[in-house]
Prior knowledge:
Blueprint: E1 3-8, H1 11-22, E2 29-35, E3 49-55, H2 59-74, E4 79-85, E5 90-97, H3 101-105, H4 110-126, E6 131-137, H5 140-162, E7 166-167, H6 173-183, E8 189-194, E9 201-206
Parallel strand pairs: 5-6
Antiparallel strand pairs: 1-3, 2-3, 4-5, 7-9, 8-9
Helix pairs in contact: 2-4, 5-6
Amino acid sequence: MREVTATGQTIEQAVQLALQQLSSTEEDVEITVIEDGKKGFLGFGAKPAKVLVVKKKTLIEKAYDYLLNIVKSLDETADVNFELQGTKEQTFLFTVKGDKVALIIGKRGNTLNALQFLVQTFVNRHSKQLIHVVVDAENYRLKRKESLEILAKKTAQTVLKTRKAISLEPMPSFERKIIHHILTDMPNISTKSVGQDPHRQLIIDLKKPIKG
């Protein structure tokens, strides 16, 4: 239940009754006075006060509306599910479904990454705390993570054999972090990012010997 119309002898009483039904506080709702109410005279002509109390949308609901509006322009059949994960460090997870999911994902996830960036920017503008945003479709994020892990290990083996550094294709920071994490404990292999987003690349190279 997102809204309640309530009556009471006074506006304050009507508001309190509505808040009880919504299990909310005044900070979390918008209040519209429909009728001020009248006390009447000698018991005649009295009218109760009437208010409309509507719950304000949470940030994740606002972000959902923002994302849904965009994906609908790409695919009219598209829909979005959302959930909140974590407590201290919160993550907004949005899952897109539709008949044209491949279009929404894009080549190597480029469109999906762009959607995620847009929603992350939207959330950052409306939140004082750090909130991570993940936009997924058809479990693409997990599949991409698995392919990046394979790429990281194969590339590292090639670097060890050829003794030459290899630059990977440009990718967003969260994908570079996946590869960096996989290779962190690999002997004799180092990783570093070069360039500016969105063309920033990860270079896999041999660890330079420490000069003593």
